[in-house]
Amino acid sequence: NLKLPRPTRRRILTVANQKGGVGKTTSTVNLAAGLAIAGLKVLVIDLDPQGNASTALAIEHRSGTPSVYEVLIGEISVAEAAQVSNQSPNLYCVPATIDLAGAEIELVSMVARESRLKEALSSEALAEIDPDYVFIDCPPSLGLLTVNAMVAAQEVLIPIQCEYYALEGLGQLLRNIELVQAHLNPTLNVSTILLTMYDGRTKLADQVTSEVRGHFGDTVLRTVIPRSVKVSEAPGFAQTVLTYDPGSRGAMSYLDAAREIAEFGARMGLA
Ligand code: ADP
Ligand code: MG
């Protein structure tokens, strides 16, 4: 019943923040599920050796499963590695297995080491799945995997936790994005900042929120994701919060954020 505008060209978003535990994976899977449930075709690339996005989307990712690792080393295509999620027939995921842990080092000596994911996500490679959206869930580092994600994308989505030290490390992330823009991907832009784990009972959360809005203006989504037990429980049931508890505040806010992303795209001519 919920319908969102379909972008006229594919949007590839990298979900990045070198800080761990800020909500990259949670935001990736829930935004992806929100867009998919709204009728759009979405592909999630799990680029973190931890494989948390694969787990949350109930995607097989035991060692040896065809995964993003084999895609990066050029053995198989994205279409060959992608699996359909239990969350929606429109939602696909290329899993990460523990085999990806060595890739950061293996990539160093490879040809075109920064653009291997971009090659893997070419129009020809994506023709079969034909996703409207691709979300790349980055590991908590600024190494070659994250660089590959930034080279492959047009947009960066930065989740920021409404906590003390939220802005710490953000300068380094933005400088890395500038380096990628200067040398590898001039069309990359930080299109979206999402405030996560907001706890309305603390004054601090409001301080962080207004500081981030003051800094980044309209790039920050109006929707703020609340801290909610349902959101953190859902992966344990191999679900996103959208199917685990569709009426919860967490689910509603991720749906709102997905709508903002889709409508922003339509407004900006990205769509
Ligand atoms: P990252 O991918 O940046 O490391 P995660 O998405 O894995 O971060 O989130 C870190 C932890 O915080 C996880 O245990 C997750 O379940 C929890 N979490 C994320 N978002 C929320 C939220 N809105 N409310 C409660 N817990 C959350
Ligand atoms: Mg993660």
TrEMBL record:
SUPFAM superfamilies assigned: P-loop containing nucleoside triphosphate hydrolases
A matching Pfam family: AAA_31
Record InterPro entries: AAA_dom, DNA_Partitioning_ATPase, P-loop_NTPase
Role of this protein: May play a role in septum formation.
Xref: PANTHER family: P-LOOP CONTAINING NUCLEOSIDE TRIPHOSPHATE HYDROLASE, PARA FAMILY PROTEIN CT_582
Similarity comment: family membership: Belongs to the ParA family.
Protein name: AAA family ATPase
